């Protein structure tokens, strides 16, 4: 394992933050580079990575967009936990003045902290998550009561933005590479309960086939780590229940 250390100049050398980043340059083994940067008030992990890239390591690759907790593209593993780095303040996660930053797990690394999410989105499609409406643009908008049971069930899961944090946190994804994963199944649950969707039973069949919802061990890591406090565990439980009912009905 190779480690190299960089230090940024600062007017307060007494208070520095030690950062180790897994750059993964050697196949099959982590390759961490170490950096020292000034410890500032209210700095986020994304601020830290950006400062390192701009002042110490211009070749460091990472992904971000909005910086305000809307897009989810800045997700990384920080001290062993998947997080949105733009909303994670250093003071909340540092351990004795040290931070370890790694890419999200369960997805192939492209370079440094950037992972390939194509497999993640392929599973999203396999779960039957393409909306198919029954109305045309010439029809009036669907009249869906906000307080209806199905609308509430759909609303409970609809805020997912596919950041991949739950996928990275899921041990079942790590064990079973065919498992559709919590994000894809959470979306399937939302679509299954959407009264405008043309064939909710087809969604249920796809979401429960093979390594679908029934492969979930209900450990709850997805729910624990979701940055917007959704419960994919609850969504998957709903899919399991309805899939069983469909099977018993001979559907």
UniProtKB/TrEMBL annotation:
Q: Name one GO molecular function term.
A: succinate dehydrogenase (quinone) activity
The EC code for this enzyme is 1.3.5.1
This protein is called what?
A: Succinate dehydrogenase iron-sulfur subunit
The protein's required cofactor(s) are namely: [4Fe-4S] cluster; [3Fe-4S] cluster; [2Fe-2S] cluster
Q: Specify the taxonomic lineage.
A: Bacteria, Pseudomonadati, Pseudomonadota, Betaproteobacteria, Burkholderiales
Q: Name one Pfam family in it.
A: Fer4_17
Please name the InterPro entries in this protein's record.
2Fe-2S_ferredoxin-like_sf (IPR036010), 2Fe-2S_ferredoxin-type (IPR001041), 2Fe2S_fd_BS (IPR006058), 4Fe4S_Fe-S-bd (IPR017896), Beta-grasp_dom_sf (IPR012675), Helical_ferredxn (IPR009051), SDH/FRD_Iron-Sulfur (IPR050573), Succ_DH/fum_Rdtase_Fe-S (IPR004489)
Sorted alphabetically, the keyword list is: 2Fe-2S, 3Fe-4S, 4Fe-4S, Iron, Iron-sulfur, Metal-binding, Oxidoreductase
A GO BP annotation: respiratory electron transport chain
The pathway that the record names for this protein is: Carbohydrate metabolism; tricarboxylic acid cycle; fumarate from succinate (bacterial route): step 1/1
Presence of the UniProt keyword Oxidoreductase in the record: yes
Q: Which residues does the UniProt record annotate as the domain 4Fe-4S ferredoxin-type? A: 150-180
Q: How is the cofactor bound?
A: Binds 1 [4Fe-4S] cluster. Binds 1 [3Fe-4S] cluster.
């Amino acid at each position: 394992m190779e480690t190299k250390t960089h230090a940024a100049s600062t007017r307060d050398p007494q208070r520095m933050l030690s950062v180790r980043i897994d750059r993964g340059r050697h196949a099959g083994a982590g390759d961490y580079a170490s950096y020292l940067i000034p410890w500032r008030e209210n700095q986020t992990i994304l601020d830290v990575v950006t400062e390192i890239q701009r002042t110490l390591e211009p070749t460091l690759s990472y992904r971000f967009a909005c910086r305000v907790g809307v897009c989810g593209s800045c997700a990384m593993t920080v001290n062993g936990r998947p997080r949105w780095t733009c909303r994670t303040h250093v003071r909340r996660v540092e351990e004795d003045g040290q931070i370890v930053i790694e890419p999200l797990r369960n997805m192939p690394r492209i370079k440094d902290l950037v992972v390939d999410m194509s497999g993640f989105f392929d599973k999203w499609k396999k779960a039957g998550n393409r909306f198919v409406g029954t109305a045309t643009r010439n029809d009036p908008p669907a009249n869906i009561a906000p307080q209806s049971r199905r609308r509430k069930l759909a609303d409970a899961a609809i805020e997912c933005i596919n950041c991949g944090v739950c996928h990275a946190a899921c041990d079942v994804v790590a064990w079973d590479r065919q498992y559709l994963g919590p994000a894809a199944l959470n979306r399937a649950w939302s679509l299954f309960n959407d009264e405008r969707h043309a064939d909710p039973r087809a969604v249920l069949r796809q979401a429960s086939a093979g390594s679908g919802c029934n492969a979930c061990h209900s450990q709850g890591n997805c729910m624990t780590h979701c940055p917007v406090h959704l419960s994919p565990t609850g969504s998957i439980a709903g899919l399991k229940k309805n899939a069983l009912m469909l099977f018993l009905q001979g559907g």
